Amino acid sequence: MTKSTRYTHPVPFSRPSGRRRIEVFSPKIGRRLSLGSYDASRTWLVIEANPDIVTFCERPTYVDGQRGPVIDFWVQLKGAPGGEFWMVEGPPRASSQAGSLPPEEPSHLHDLPVRYIRRADLVAWAIALANWAHITPYLVSHRRYRDALLEQRIMAFLVQDESLDAVLAHFSTRDETTVQAALFQLLAEGRVTSADLACEPIDGATRFHRLPVVLASTPS
User: Fold this and answer.
1) Furthest-apart CA pair in the chain: how many Å?
2) Which structural domain, as residue segments, surrounds residue 113?
3) Of 84, 103, 124, which marks where a domain is finished?
4) How does pLDDT run across 60-87, given as a tens digit for each residue?
5) Which residue in 48, 37, 198, 190 sits closest to 126, CA to CA?
6) In the chain, fewer beta carbons within 10 Å around the N or the C end?
């Protein structure tokens, strides 16, 4: 049976000499985070960009005791209340013994599955992550001023693929930043999608389209 532990509070941030401290604000969970590496901050963008992730927590617990390393993220996806741990691959380390094998990566910790985020994957996702680094400030700055009616009107407009420039032109009587924030909120919620964001830097030609609304089934 899946463990239903919900992690909401990070363990203290430990900053040994030379370790980075990157401060960000998460629109998904509505609070500030302290992250210890650029790869951790890129992984945070992966989390923000995935509408199937309901909530998460950075540094949710220790791997094995408070003197050891911490787990980088606990992530809860839709339909999986127990969640899973994400471990971010660190920089390559010189082996203490020639020919020795790398340490074993456990598939589970504290009864939860572990997903490993590889540096090679983060490199491959560079364009998408740069786009979400552009999008996230809109979500943060407008999180308290959401316009539900504008969001509905944008959904109605996106009957087919429309470029960002076309969306802005259609709603030209509204503040441009507000329109972009509403569009990006729909994107973050998985109500709108854009294949272009995975392969091209975001600009006026970036295309968006709405996803069909899935109605909950009723008992027969």
Assistant:
1) 67
2) 22-124
3) 124
4) 999 998 878 999 999 999 999 899 999 9
5) 198
6) C
